[in-house]
Write a structure and sequence with these properties.
The chain is built from 5 helices and 2 strands, in the order E-E-H-H-H-H-H. It is mainly alpha-helical. The chain has one domain. Strands 1-2 form a two-stranded antiparallel sheet. It is globular and about 30 Å long.
């Protein structure tokens, strides 16, 4: 599915082709399921794009890909959310 979102960083309309179903989006947005549980087949970058509209390139441009890659940070953040029962 082609997902279009406006990035809060660049204010640009971004698009990303993501292997996600309407049912998965419904489970997350309407039913309140954690995005990583509703869409376990997606990468952290894809889930972040669905949530925020921020592309992996924008993250890299903003944070420069220092010692810690953005996707590693997102994976740790998601794991902490699961462990502490929070909702993204």
């Amino acid at each position: 599915m082609l997902i279009h979102k406006v990035s809060p960083i660049s204010n640009k309309l971004n698009a990303m082709e993501i292997d996600v179903t309407c049912s998965q989006i419904y489970d997350w947005e309407v039913e309140g399921m954690l995005i990583q549980q509703a869409m376990p087949n997606l990468t952290a970058d894809e889930r972040e794009f669905i949530k925020t509209g921020i592309t992996p390139q924008e993250w890299n441009d903003m944070y420069g890909g220092d010692d810690f890659e953005e996707h590693e940070y997102l994976d740790l953040l998601e794991q902490a959310t699961i462990e502490f029962g929070g909702k993204e």
